[in-house]
Amino acid sequence: MALPILIDLEQEITRLMIAGSPHAKGDPRLKKFIPALEKLAEKAPVMATLAQRLTALVEGDEKTGPEALLSVGTVITSIMYTQGSSETDADIMAFDYEDKPLALTRIHYSRLHEVIEVLESGGQKHSGLLARLLERGDHKDPRLYPSYVKAVTDVKSPISSFVCEKILPDIGADIAPFLLAEFDAKGSKRHARILRVLRMIMGKDAAPLAEKALAEGAPPVMTEALLTLGQDPAYEETLIAYTSDRKGEIRGAALAGLAIMGSDQGAMLLLEGLDKSSISHLEEALVLTKDPAVLDKMLVQARMFESAYKMKDKKKTPTAAEEDPFPKNLAKWRILLSVIAARSEWECLTVLEAMLMDKTYGDVWNDLALRQIMENLCEDSDLEKRKMIVRVCNDASRAYYKLKACISLYSVEEVYDRCHRDVNKDQAGLIHRVYNIDREERAPDNQKTWDRRWAQQFAGTNPYDACVLVYNDDLSTWKKILEAAAALVKSMASTSYLQASYRRVLVEAFRSQYPEARKYFEKFVKNGADRAKLIEEISRAVPDAQENWFK
Amino acid sequence: MKITEDVIRLFAGSATVAANGKSLANKGSFISLSINQEANLLFGLCQGSGKTPYACSVDFAEPDKPIARCSCPSRQIPCKHAVGLLFCRLHNKTFAVAEIRESVVVKREKLKARAEKKADFAQKAAEENAAGNTPAPLTKQRASAAVKKCRAQLTGLELAEKILHNIVKGGLHSIDRHNEKLYAEQVKELGNYYIVGVQAALTDLLTAAAEGQKSQDFTQAVRQLSYLHALLQKAQAHMQNRISDLESFPELGSSALQAMLHSTIEERMGTAWKLSELAQHGLMLQNTKLIQLAFRVYEDEAKKEFVDESVWLSLTDRQIYLSKNFRPFKALKYIRAEDSVFLLIEPQELFIYPGDKNPRIRWDAATRREITAEDLVEAQAAGQVDFAAVLREVKNQLRAPLADKNPFVALKVAKLGQDDAGRCYVFDSQDTVIPLIPGQFGHLLRRLSREQAEGQVLVCRFAQNNESLLYGEPVALITDSAVIRFAY
User: What's the pTM?
Assistant: First the structure.
């Protein structure tokens, strides 16, 4: 440890370097160090040097001040480095070695750094990077553990759920100490997420932690704690006690915990809850319950809402004195449908299919969040649900869902056969969306995952989008696309930003070696396209274009 | 040459290119795969987005320096197609034996001619060295030109000193946006005096002062002031020595030369050593073996460049060296980024720059192979057993104003310890203890088994914190079976 006088002097010198050397002249705070340093010089000669330089600084003028100050600074920095010590007062104990040796994967800096950046920045684009990491098994590298914890605790991170649901459960108990170190029972949503992951990893062993969180925590942490306790029937009484909490989310989590446990008393409470008009807090419990009576009651209620909706006289608007009961019922109905869609029983599928088939629900489509329900069903791992989506989608407004479901179920050709009538000629963007096509870079033919007939469908109406879909060897479709683009160039000769789009179509034709590209080049120019710009863009995309076509 | 995934990644130079190349190989984008009869040229056709596939090749005429060629329009060299070709080879796809294309034959001949010319030049230089092993003879004209340059450097140093004094006079708090710009213009003028190192150090000071203004923490700026003061003083003295040495021509003094060869003064001033100069002064080792212990990339704002820094252990002289690959922002496209290396590198000639405990190294040609258990045993011999001596040596280095404040040392671990606060310690066999403060992946230290730690070699980067605690930051652990990295 450095001498206190040196620490104080260093602070004074730092202060002067910030304030400026002229302030040193005659400074009493500096003067007081000189006698003390001279005394120390009897044992350490370097202190005499320091005292001399300090005297020169205090007595110096504006001209010599900067050099004198720097000179004192350099000496004191050197002395401070000699004062360094590795000694410690701490009580050093034996090291707590692990039984299992540490194993690292051989991930290179470039990849590891990229993954860490993604995990810690919460970027949206790179969930594919993590998926590849998981595929290769490199996700178990312990160097990534602290970054995983950051990703878990960042509630706004879109990759967080991937880390929580796929990566961390696969790593298992090894990551638990890192999560535990970050967990705060009194914490907020971040800590609730950590507890959720710990529940997945530790199972029943997380119960003591959950008990503590339940006693001390804020509502989001308590919610997760209740779900954790649901894994152990010993906590049934505790959970039942929380079903009468004044906060809806706590009551709901307690019921969900009881549902996980398969508690009869929990099922009774759920049945009672279903009688009430507001059931938003019961959603998770209703999804998790295995009780047939609860399921029956949900289905009966859903059917009752359907009947009530159909019988409702839509033309009659309630007067101010009358209360319209339906807005409240809509909220309950929406939750029931969402629960039914999340469950896998065939009765649920039947109710849902009948409803989605019926086109009379147009004016409550948004209120019931049916769009979201269909989106979820398209991505559900249950094949039957996706098949149901194919059955219920039979017009242009639902083409997106049908395409998504079909892609996961059928061959490329069958997708086109089943869906092409549902897709309008102006909906080429839909194909790009469902196949996740990058418009900026045309994929080679052997990487195209869609049927070649899609390009034919849009060739005449939307050449810009069709040229991304067309196969290189599909000459007749290329011809149609270029004809349509040339016609559009003519009609929009004065609109430069649109011209750029259609120039792109011709550039792509050259790039894919379409034999008549040169002919269409002339046609574009004749129709008003800028010749120089066209040549420039084509040459940029096709390096030997100048040599082959524009000598 | 044996193609491994590490070799391909090193060749690709960028993770993205390597990933894209691998993806091409996996997707089966290669229409044809061929190899010449001598098995030193891989070539093939890869289907791109156009109708005509790209003709790509990787030439192993010089096995250590494979050359990628491709007809694709990408400016990236090597492109993903060439890298994909190597992945096809790695995945044991069938390569048909075929004749080399005419264009490749022509390129190979040109390359051969160039290599022969280079070899002639090298041989001539070697012969000149063997004759006297002295630098190129100094003529009167050369000496007078060198004196002129030194005088210009001295003028530059005086100018730099004036700028520094003005900054100290005004105080660091006075470097606001307006003043920073004024000082930056003055610093820019130093570019005419062959002292780019001093120029960069002054730019660093301005950056640190500006940062200090924002955070109201001037610690870094104050440190930089002391460093610059020491640098200017030493540089001026060194230049005076050089001038007096050169002016005594034809009788040459050697004091400046000794300073050049045994300190970093020239490099800190901004001198770029030529490899031939290093060889002439005997700063070269032959047939060495290097193991990488750590790798990092950092941004040098003052010099406007990225630096890829590696820490190496030489199995030949058991020294820890540093290598740096400088990538100026303006030339990022043209300079390949380096990456971590898990193989053993065997440079034919290892050039060592003058420096402190961990000098900078560089090499041109090297072969690579997997690290064996014997190599690890050799590496472990670098571990120092007497920690008291290590601490003395480190403290000696730290107190020198221009020395590197973070030397790397390999320590033979007798045992590890820990305290109540969770801090770890390393002991030697005499029970001398060094505290360990973990760096980026330092948490891994807590996950070691007894066999992995005791009796093994821990490489640490030493530092001293504001409380004057001298500690080690674990960088890598060399065990009997592996090198465990606590950094990238």
Answer: 0.69
